[in-house]
Amino acid sequence: MPLDTGLYEANEVYRSWVNHPFRFVEPNSLNENKGLRKPQLAALHSTLSHLISFHSEPATVVMPTGTGKTDAIFALILAGIFSRTLVIVPSDALREQTSEKIVALRNLRAMNAVGDKMLSPRVRKIDSKLDLVGISELADCNVIIATPQALQNFTDAELSALKDLCSHLIVDEAHHVAAETWLRIRKIFSDRPVIQFTATPFREDNQSLQGKIIYNYSLRDAQRDGYFQEIEFHPIREYQPSKADEAIAEKAVELLRLDLADNKNHLMMVRSKSHKRAEKLFDIYKRHSDLSPVLIHSKVADKAVVLEAIKNKKHRIIVCVDMLGEGFDLPELKIAAIHDQHRTPAVTLQFIGRMTRVSTELGTAKFVANIANQKMDAQMAALYEESADWSAIIRDVSENKIKREVLREEFSSQFEDDEGGREILSLNPEPNISAIAYHLDAKNWQPECVSEFKGKREELQFSSVSAKKDLVIMVTRAEVVVPWANTAEIANTEWYLYLAYFDKTQKMLFINSSGDEGQAAKFRELVSGNAVKIAGEKTFRTLHELKFIKLQNVGLTRAQKDVRFTMHVGRDINAIIGDLENGTAVKSNIFSTGYFNGEKVTAGCSHKGKIWEMNSDSIDHWIRWCNGAAVKLNNSTIDTKDIINNVMRSEQIRDEWPAGLFFADWPDSLFIENESKINLLISGKSYNLLDIRFGQLSKVSKTVMDIQILEPETEGETKILSSIKISLLQDGFQYSCGDVKITVAGEQNLAEYLNENPLRILKQDGSLIFGNYRYYSPAALNIKIPKSLISVWDWGGVSIHRESMGKDKNIDTVQGFTFGKIVDKYEIVFNDDGSGEVADLVAINENNGVIEIDLYHCKYCGVTNGEAKPGGRVTDTYEVSGQSSRSVKWLNSGEALLSRLLDRYANSIEKGFNRLLKGDISRIDILRYKCRDQELKMGFYIVQPAISEKVVSDEQLSVLGTSYTYIKSVSGIDLQVIASP
User: Fold this and answer.
1) Domain of 390, in residue numbers
2) Domains contained in the chain, number
3) For 145, phi and psi rounded to 5 degrees?
4) What pLDDT, in 10s, does the model give residues 402-445?
5) I need a surface site. Which of 232, 411, 828, 950 has the fewest CB within 10 A?
6) Does 517 share its domain with 442?
7) Claim to verify: residue 520 and residue 563 sit in the same structural domain
């Protein structure tokens, strides 16, 4: 680095670095193999090379824990002869340790990379806010060490003064620095070289680390080069929660005793997530008094004394709460009893890295954890699978995460050759997901012309073309006349974002502009020639494959002389559906919601050619959206007239609640996966939403409907907890629920919540009731289930008036008989009957890479005059049809469904109720992980012996048809019904 002549004269330490330079010592037989490790040497050379070219963008060095990252930082400061370096570390403890280590330079001096005449740096630490005077007093040092928390309290002027003192900024463990704090520091230090060191180049706050990776020493390389020992994973599979901690402790202590007997000087860490958990675990481990267990966390008295005792190996078992992780160097920690798993790759990799350092005196690292029904994302789940190879998995997890960072960089790097691209991407743009599409030949695509932009009172600020030449980004600045003054002397400043993406495969151009249509058109003319706009009916192809379409607003063009255009929103849309069907009006624009592949989506399109979604996202997401739209827009086989048949109509309910309302469900805003996190508070007691259900709807009067809130008891009897009343008003509706509260976005009155988010109520004809409006689609109205989907069982002498087999597995019931009929068809059969069930029986197979889950909803036959006789009673179809409709919510949530079964198993087994009728519970756990990568197929079955195939009524077929139509529309799967002869 350039010599600072003034500092050379004034600073003795700096002068010694210049006169007695750092030596790049490589290990060899002559120096007893003492020297810089391979990753340290490579990181030094890569970073110094980067600094010579002085890139303004921060650079990132990736070195896994245990490969000598800290000494690499010290070596960089000395070898680069940095005048004065600010080093940011994530914690107070690491600040103290780094300060001590850089003054000692023990490893670098031992290998003779730093000679006797090369002085250690003078170090100053920042542990609190400093004023300008205090900052000026730091000028006598060579290295300043601070935490982000301390710098966060500095004003911009104070940070700027600190920057003026420093020649370089180094950030250690960069993934810890919060994005907002880091952006502020980066902005202040924008004219200084910035180097980030980390083992995990992905932020804990899920935002980009924003630094070019100039050196990446992968975990694969570290394992190959011998810096990481192999890792042994010893899994426990205990589904009964009350026994899990004991099982982990028993295995971990066994491993520790074996290592000690093998003369390995090992220690064991017991990892918990909270003080309360740590204290509970300590009660388990303190039984092994000969191993001197100790408890340590932030509230333990004399914590410093305890830590010192741990360092002196006075305790073999250490129960802690994240106290011995980052910054704590104790190589003898070789066994980890993981009672509470980490949830993120960054923390897990740090944790593992601390225990896998190589030493000739120590053995391999061993990890013990319970792999039964672990809740974590796909990135970490592989660690807790049967026979998991942790050495390979942590390598792959790290590489996959780094790969995503590299891909992000690759996208950004398409624009790094010019300042405009870098400036635009640094703003983290999130355009509206919208576009106007054009057919375009490749020969007419001219992205480079963006630099020639000229606009009236609009100036080009930044522009860039991707390296692939398929994306143009432009930002302009305009002076816009204010609307409230008739003068050009004052104006507002507006900034506009423009995007142009050319899909070469579909030969289609997409234009996006935050400005108006005229601005978008000028931009399109600038970057393309002879583009043909896709407009008219073609744009409505983007609504193709949407189910249960609900129109939010519709614009129509009409032929009347006095009315050329009408706009319809809300309930008014119902009146113009006929115009769309008979062609008396032309669609001008439509915005709608619907379901696509089981997920709720939004879609908008206009006759003029604009298509959109109601959200904004990153530029690369916008590109993927354009690619999907291009396929539909180019599909000439789509008939837009068919789309109208899937549109939901609405009509207001007046004077009286209609007949045929048979099932109520929670609002669509409460997704089934989230219901486990929501409770109802009734008479001072809390009930999970999944553990209660609604009773049948009853009309108290013409305008008042009552729905009981039920809690099924374990013996099968139903307990009424409370009730919900819905009153039909003259022009509205009103819920009343007494003092029942719901825990959504805090705690609020249930009636207030339902007044804004009404229950979804099914009507016998297939329509839906929300509030005081009925919604229906002609394509799904009054559809009777095809009789071909109704099959018959001979029930013999089964007590069909009894539904549940219970924990005693009573076969003389509807559920028990059903189990006997299907048991040979499936690998796993699970009894999920009871409060919060997915279905009465959940049957599972895995065939040729496909996971098949069939849901059987069973219902008993009521007794009349002492006899349970099948017939054509419509009431026998109400509840079971509603339950089957509700269960379709699990369609795209296979992992959540199987997790639910594992939770139900764990809770019931504690009470002596084994829900597993066939198979191994561990298979459900294994399949839960496989759901992430394998195809999931679901089947829906209603088992109701009260229905007689011979005398089945139209009303029964209609109610069953309601569930059939809904399930078929959302999932594409037929609903099967099993009845009596």
Assistant:
1) 224-399
2) 6
3) -120, 130
4) 555 555 555 555 555 555 555 666 667 889 999 999 999 999 99
5) 950
6) yes
7) no
